[in-house]
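Re: the pair you flagged

First of the two:
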Amino acid sequence: MTTTKPPATPQRTSSGDGASAALHIGTSDPRALILGNLRQSGIYIALVVIVALFAVLTDGVSLSPGNITNIVLQYSYILVLAIGMVIVIIGGHIDLSVGSVVALTGAVSAVLVIRQGYPWWVGILAALAVGILVGAWHGFWVAYAGIPAFIVTLAGMLLFRGLTLRVLDNISLSPFPAEYQRVAAGFLNGLIGGQGYDAFTLLIGAVAVAGYAVSVFRTRLARIRYQQPVESFPLFVTRVLLVGAVIMYFAWQLAHARGLPIVLIVLAVLVLVYGLVTRRTVFGRRVYAIGGNLSAATLSGVKVRTVNFWMFVNMGFLAAVAGVIYSSRSNGAQPAAGNMFELDAIAAAFIGGAAVTGGVGTVVGAMVGGLIMAVMSNGMQLMGVDQSMQSVVKGLVLLVAVAFDVYNKRRAGSAR
């Protein structure tokens, strides 16, 4: 009588962290692993190169404590918009109205707080409510009426810009009370002392580094558990140390300026929350499924209309948050506020690795893409580059990012 051996099962290594065995699970060539992650790793390298380039071109001014603080304050609202925009793009849509929504929500807040004398927090709540209503308006037409998001939000861009003019009566309103201004211009400092620097800012930076290290280590263990390819352990440690060094340098510079900006705390909370939403929740997985393959998502029982509706509600909410931050930063509301903000948010998402056809992208990637745009804009301003030339450079960077995405897709298709 003959016996048959059971099929061999993958064996995990007992030494180290299992990286050597895991590296070859799913791929026999480490080079393929590196190339496969180029979309994610490339933008981090690009950010470092751009920061170093402008540090040299501006004789270190771009890395001064005051300038780093200004970058956070000046571009925080674009980063907030990029969080919502990347989710919409992952779902296979686009939103061209966010700049107008920023203007409208800021205008509503200004009318209530400045003109009618309501408390500052009432203006913030009203702005958020208007943003949610705008998102629901867009979501209805896209999800339930079946009109393409490009058309719906293009109409919204015109509609809500017109409403902004009506709300403000074509005039600017200012100033906001000091409490409202602290949203985008306030700092937390002096809470635990420090000689010539703010120790609280350094503490928050250290907590951020520890949180990042724990998060990526858990992700690595999960990939090993499911026998997915991972980088070698020395390379992993090097990456964590480099990211930690960058975070602590950033915190050190802030600590020597004015301390920890309140708006940075708001942005960090949003990044953490939406990072978890996109990676760990049913809603996030459904957004990726819809953007990746709409037909398959529908056949799998995903409620496409409901997910699409809430995607745009969320975008409206984040546009309102950006509207509050921008009006607080500018200490008023203007009819032309938010002009072209949608293009900056879209550019941040695409530069950060989002795919033109949907289904691909991350919140962290959008943040890095937004930082690339912010560093370039700030660096060119410090160098005195003409505004027209700044637009040319931004346009070329966006074109290269999208071309890289298309190239990757064609290469993947030919590999099959």
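Second of the two:
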Amino acid sequence: MPIKIPNNLPAFSTLVNENIFVMADEKASRQDIRPLKVAIVNLMPTKIVTETQLLRLLSNTPLQVDITLVKTETHNPKNTSQEHLVNFYTTFNQIKEQYFDALIITGAPVELLDFNSVHYWKELCDIMEWSKTHAFSTVHICWAAFAGLYYHYGIQKQVLDKKMFGIFPHKINAINHPLLKGFDDIFMVPHSRYTGVKMEDIETNPNLALLAYSDIAGAYIVADRTNRQIFITGHAEYDRNTLKDEYMRDVEKGIPIEVPYNYFPDDNPKLTPHFTWRGHASLMYSNWLNFCVYQETPFDLTKLEPLEY
């Protein structure tokens, strides 16, 4: 998929070096097609890393995608330069009159806080409410998945006994769902979180479907009955070394942390981790854009039907 992004965005050169088809604005404007409009609300502190990870996964179909990066106004990130934010990001207030085929809301390192204690919670609630009328399909990742399940369906997050940290095997719970088309019976996914949701809270809600889960990590993919709201509790977008970097950071800070489950060969942090989830991560995002967005979204986005439940 040609990803339409500014050619001076740091992810541009990274993805070009990986032979991923990215397209500068000037070239994209000469193609006589309507690209999918995808907004990414990036709540992660390391925004450049997260941008690159997600853009890599959105690049695997023949569709052209026009990316809009969005930041919160009520939180000023300290780990990303102001120059980068000014050059490449917009705010919700600047796009709230626009319509999008798809929206991604990332995780954030605030999961142990009560939702109402997160200082940009009201702004995020405004975004999630807006998504029901201005985005055809929305993917919520990790903390955003718990935030979305709480905001839209009143499902409470649960604090875990210890951090869910590692690469876990998962099973399909909805064989014919388009998001899982082509998946193996068992597939691997990274998790890095201190909270979760009870699977029975999902299964007893008539508006939701549990698509995939792990016997260890619990609910993984949850979707509403229209596929316009998708909640993903893990981090399929992670790179090979993301968990390694998190582990080493916590060790250096003296934070008690176990070696990530099923990640390092022989549980030895000195060895290179195996990259065992890349194929299914790419397939999931390709399925989402193809089957849940492109095949269903209206050509004229102003005619998008509001999401009701």
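Residues 28-32 have pLDDT under 50 and may be disordered.

-B.
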